[in-house]
Design goal:
The structure is a single chain. It is elongated and about 55 Å long. The protein is built from one helix and six strands, in the order αββββββ. By secondary structure, it is α+β, with helices and mostly antiparallel strands. The protein has one domain.
Length: 114
């Protein structure tokens, strides 16, 4: 009887954690910068640096550094844009200006409590 109760409690806790993970989190895009994210070969001896957009996204407790997955994607998101995002397997998914985006999470920083 005790083992069944424990199994039910554990199942309930696991289900509630997975449901909470799907809830969108409110954040704001703070800044954008171009960073080197690879090279492109031009012939046998020369190569050029490829730049990607990297954004700082701030929530009430965490600051995320996110980068576009492919350098060919040219959408630029303006600073101070409010978003609702979810994180799944190191990918941040959100909507801004009526369009869906998926960026790679390359860093996280905990903000000091106020």
């Amino acid at each position: 009887m005790k083992s069944r109760c424990v199994a039910v409690v554990v199942a309930f806790l696991c289900a509630s954690v997975s449901i909470a993970a799907d809830k969108p989190t409110a954040a704001t895009i703070i800044s954008m910068q171009a960073v080197e994210c690879g090279t492109k070969n031009k012939g046998k001896k020369s190569s050029t640096a490829v730049l990607c957009h990297q954004y700082i996204v701030r929530t009430s407790s965490t600051e995320y550094q996110i980068r576009q997955p492919k350098p060919s994607e040219e959408a630029i998101l303006p600073p101070n844009t409010s978003i609702q995002f979810t994180v799944d397997k190191q990918k941040m998914k959100f909507k801004a200006n009526g369009k869906k985006y998926e960026y790679l999470v390359v860093g996280m920083t905990a903000l000091p409590s106020q």
